[in-house]
Amino acid sequence: MNLRVQAYPWHLIEVDQILILLTMKAPVFLILFLGISGVQALHAQKTALLIIDMQEFYFPGGKLQLDNPEEAVMNAGLLLEHFRLFEWPVYHISHQAEEGSAIHYFVQPKEGEPLLTKDRVNAFSGTDLESMLRKDSVDRLVICGMQTHLCVEAAVRAAADLGFECWLASDACATRSLQFGEHIIPARQVHFSTLSTLQGTYAEVSNSQDIIRLLIPARE
Question: Which structural domain, as residue segments, surrounds residue 79?
Answer without folding.
Answer: 46-215
